[in-house]
Design goal:
Elements lengths: L20 E12 L2 E12 L3 E5 L6 H8 L7 E6 L2 E2 L5 H7 L3 E4 L11 H12 L5 H14 L15 H12 L6 E5 L7 H18 L2 E6 L2 H7 L2 E6 L2 E6 L1 H5 L4 H9 L1 H4 L6
Parallel strand pairs: 3-8, 3-9, 6-7, 7-8
Antiparallel strand pairs: 1-2, 1-4, 4-5, 9-10
Protein name: ABC transporter, ATP-binding protein
Keywords: ATP-binding, Nucleotide-binding, Transport
GO molecular function: ATP binding; ATP hydrolysis activity
Amino acid sequence: MRSSSQTTSEFAFQPPRPGEQLIYFEHLTKAFGAKRVYDDMDLDVRAGETLVVMGGSGTGKSVLLKCLIGLLSPDTGRILFQGHDLARFTEEQFMPVRRHVAMVFQGAALFDSLNVGENVAYPLREHFPDMPADEVRARVAEKLALVDLPNTERLMPSGLSGGMRKRVGLARAIATEPEVILWDEPTTGLDPVTTQSINVLINSMKTRLGCTSIVVTHDMVSAFTVGDRIAMLANRRIVQVGTPREMLHSTVPEVRAFLDARRVELFPGGAP
């Protein structure tokens, strides 16, 4: 196990085999003052899968992603990523990790003063300061085309629709060609047609890039559309992990109550 004395040069990503454990949240606890978010929470993520974390508002879904990329720290427990305990990493040590794990934020988090091309180029300039300008431009164009936004480099964020902003946020996230993509409520605030296009985009990233994804959402249609496995977060822990079919037929009380309350989302024409 690595301690906080590690240097950034010691982190080296070794591509795992599909299905192997890639990330493991082990015995995590986290609180904000008197509000406890996790109590001894465990969750594993397998290489090449799309793992959906669902749960009600305020259950700590987004906190999980922020702990993984170092924006927050758990109080106790470990976050194992290829044998490295990220929970003990310093900000400096997280820099090479963020080349391999990228996050698409809920509101896209674009820089409004930068155009689309400059937004997508930003992580390249952060992580690869010596990359030639023509290579940066080529990488930006490639990633924008990958999310179906070719030739949009000169547009400003203020002129983009919600769906386009999400796509630019994804292009920026994949600019460094990460192996893991984190999606924080990717369909929140979008209309049904745009929501479906984002679901298609999430699935296409697995096909085109072979990446691992963790999707945080309370959108049941999205969860059951993109998830290879679904984890239910309730009562400060993961109460069940299973395939969409297994979760749909779950007898775990917290899962059953959550799905029953949202049954109309899954079965708008009536429950089967």
